[in-house]
Design brief:
The structure is a homodimer of 190-residue chains.
Chain A lengths: L1 E5 L7 E2 L1 E6 L5 E6 L2 E5 L4 E7 L3 H9 L1 E6 L5 H7 L9 H5 L3 E3 L6 E3 L4 E12 L3 E14 L11 H4 L3 E3 L4 E11 L10
């Protein structure tokens, strides 16, 4: 039997992604976002929702660019920290000892030590409510060599990303291989 | 060292969510989407990107409503099947033996057997490129009793959702508990 939980943002899985941006003085900042996801295949785009109150919001409106730095499990504490304090008050790179790398394609920094990076130019800004949705066209994806297979394919299991469970605010790892997409479903083909 | 992989939709994790809609004749359809995510906290909203070519696209434009039915691992084959064939050609409920339940809040059906359901009214439609992004305001979340804790909290580990790795097209399960959000990061507090 289904229980009604009310009008809430209770979807799972949600990602734990770190959004990189520069402020008007060129200072790098990062914040953690879970309201985010790929939103178009051609052009390749990723969308990220931010509250206007965040320092990152103003940075992205100003620079029309952001990066997504995707942490692995080893970076969970830093990724969590990036969501706990504001770039107005804290230099988050200095506090964590991580390195801000300037993208060579867009005017935004990424976290050098994180395994997977998306470099994005803002092409749409959609006001929804408390959150504003920014659509970023992905100009490049950069991955650490050690999260790529020999054929340079990128597989989630090597990135070892963090998965967020909203409301209970828990982080989980990626689990075991269930099966191949566009294949498991053949069981139902007539 | 970072390797450039080009402008691709290579973010992980991405969800495996099933979008429910009615066509103009009131026939229920479902399709699987990975380009989706929560996009606003107030009002609670979820965004889903669809190609115009899909049957679901026309349904949602017509009815201004959709549901998100989130499968657990036990429903992986059905969820995969829902992404392999078109509702133009196949009655996907009949083919899988699953049940279309009409939402009592929006004009869209959901998959009765799936553990977690979001019932959504379309409040924005954003043309991006190959994909159109639909923002749905969440009017209710319904969960199977057996995926809720005693206090009715919803935790990802009980839903046991499927996680998609794009390009290599692999499905993974949810892994182990890493830590509590807004807590792990205290390690970096001055």
């Amino acid at each position: 039997m289904k229980i009604s939980l009310g009008a809430k943002t209770l979807a799972v899985p949600t990602p734990v992604w770190v959004i990189g941006s520069y402020d008007g003085k060129g200072r790098p900042n990062v914040m953690t976002a879970a309201w985010a996801g790929i939103c178009c295949s051609r052009p390749p785009c990723v969308g990220v929702s931010l509250r206007q109150a965040t320092y990152t919001y103003g940075n992205i409106v100003g620079q029309k660019a952001f990066t997504v730095s995707i942490p692995g499990r080893a970076q969970a504490a830093a990724a969590d920290f990036f969501g706990m304090v504001s770039g107005r008050d804290v230099d988050k790179f200095a506090a964590t000892g991580l390195t801000a790398m300037k993208s060579d394609l867009v005017n935004a920094p990424y976290v050098k030590e994180f395994p997977l990076i998306l470099e994005c130019e803002v092409i749409r800004q959609v006001e929804i409510g408390l959150h504003t949705y920014f659509v970023g066209q992905i100009h490049d994806v950069k991955a650490e060599e050690n999260v790529l297979a020999e054929d340079r394919a990128l597989d989630a299991s090597k990135v070892d990303p963090i998965i967020f469970s909203p409301e209970v605010r828990r982080y989980y790892g990626l689990g075991d291989f269930i099966g191949q997409a566009f294949s498991l479903g053949r069981a139902f083909m007539a």
